[in-house]
Design brief:
The structure is a single chain. By secondary structure, this protein is an alpha/beta fold. The strands form three sheets. Strands 8-7-6-9-10-11 form a six-stranded mixed beta sheet. A three-stranded antiparallel beta sheet has the order 3-5-4. The chain has a two-stranded parallel sheet with strand order 1-2. Strand 7 and strand 8 form a beta hairpin. This is VWA domain-containing protein. InterPro entries: UCP010256, Uncharacterised_CoxE, vWFA_dom_sf. It comes from Candidatus Neomicrothrix subdominans.
């Protein structure tokens, strides 16, 4: 059984990460369903937890072998067969607000031993603007955002590794060694291929006063990315940008989301203050980006683009950043507003240097951002 978690969410996220490593898609809503199922059926029996995961996390029968392998690794750390069925284990089925087919939500509800789980609230909140939420809704959305996980995008390195048949080069050293060992007979041409390493992700979060309705939700997203790097393998760096630059990677590494957010806000002395994007981004490029953090990385700027600083400096800095990074993604919470146009001076200045310009106002838009960061190919739009 896995080590005792600090929460069902963290515990279940470990299984979701193992599934994603095996190319099994696990949307956040499926993970939420699994967490709720654990709360209903308990987490003490292997078969019970296995069946709950099978019912809630899988979308295709073709993923069953990958699920069984991931579950075995997650539960006891060794590969093995799926747990035997248990007649006493209740099935877990999902019920939605809109009925499907000819059934009804209340059909034999009292006689069926299965637990029906409803997640209409989570679905309803998926596209709600963070700036328009009640405190209770914000608490729920922050919990959902904390479950988002990044999927690593690998890049080729100069170092190479042995390959069986798919290598793009002949490995002369291994081939010669094998030839010598076989008394001069070339039995096979050994091949090699480049080693793969996950690309770095850099998050630059605007914490100025104009971003106050969104900054805490975006910091939750950053915390999920930074604190989850040990599970996902994605190296994530996070910085706050306002009137000064503040590195928050250490603070956001704290596993507890609330504690991490407290540490991050305490460390950011200009939280909800002014903004000088040109100055702070220039400091990032000079002190952190050019020396290595931004080189070949996915750089994400989360900002509404309002800037009181020098537009020429911002233009020059964004041009330098675009040359360093694999791509620059700009996440603007205002982009989803009706009639929005990128007319703010900072946004208009930065946009020509941006590869992707996306929304960032809701839980759903941050889910989409995580998916975008996991894409191996991209286009400019």
């Amino acid at each position: 059984m896995p080590a005792q978690p600090t929460s069902f969410e963290a515990w279940a996220s470990e299984l979701a990460t193992l599934l994603r490593d095996r190319e099994v898609a696990v949307p956040v809503d499926a993970l939420i369903t699994f967490v709720a199922a654990l709360g209903e059926v308990g987490a003490l029996g292997r078969a019970t937890v296995h069946d709950a995961g099978l019912a809630t996390l899988l979308r295709s029968p073709d993923d069953r072998p990958a699920f069984d392998q991931a579950f075995a690794q997650w539960w006891d750390g060794t590969p093995g067969a799926p747990p035997a069925g248990d007649d006493a284990t209740p099935e877990v089925e999902l019920a939605f607000d809109q009925d499907e087919g000819n059934g009804t939500a209340d059909d034999e509800a009292g006689d069926d031993p299965s637990e029906a789980l409803r997640f209409s609230a989570a679905e309803r909140l998926r596209h709600v603007d963070l700036a328009q939420c009640s405190p209770a809704e914000l608490d729920e959305l922050h919990r959902l955002i904390s479950l988002i996980a990044l999927r690593p995008v690998e890049r080729r390195t100069r170092r190479r590794r042995p390959a069986q048949r798919s290598g793009d080069r002949i490995d002369l050293r291994r081939t010669l060694r094998a030839t010598v060992a076989s008394d001069g007979d070339v039995l096979a041409w050994h091949r090699s291929r480049p080693r793969q390493r996950p690309r770095k992700v850099v998050l630059l979060i605007d914490v100025s006063g104009s971003m106050e309705p969104y900054s805490r939700g975006l910091l939750r997203f950053a915390h999920a990315a930074v604190s989850g790097s040990g599970r996902t393998g994605v190296k994530v760096e996070a910085f706050a940008v306002g009137t000064r630059l503040t590195r928050l990677t250490r603070e956001l590494s704290e596993p507890n989301p609330d504690a991490a957010l407290g540490l991050a806000t305490d460390a950011t002395r200009d939280f909800s203050g002014g903004t000088r994007l040109g100055d702070t981004l220039a400091q990032f490029v000079s002190d952190w980006g050019a020396p290595g953090i931004a080189r070949g990385a996915e750089v994400v700027v989360l900002s509404d683009g309002w800037d009181r600083g020098d537009a020429a400096l911002l233009d020059d800095t964004m041009a330098r950043l675009a040359l360093l990074a694999r791509r620059v993604i700009w996440v603007n919470p205002l982009r989803a507003s009706p009639g929005y146009a990128p007319l703010a001076r900072g946004m208009a200045t930065a946009l020509p240097h941006v590869d992707e310009f996306v929304d960032g106002h809701s839980f759903g838009s941050l889910e989409n951002l995580a998916e975008l960061l996991g894409q191996r190919r991209f286009g400019v739009y």
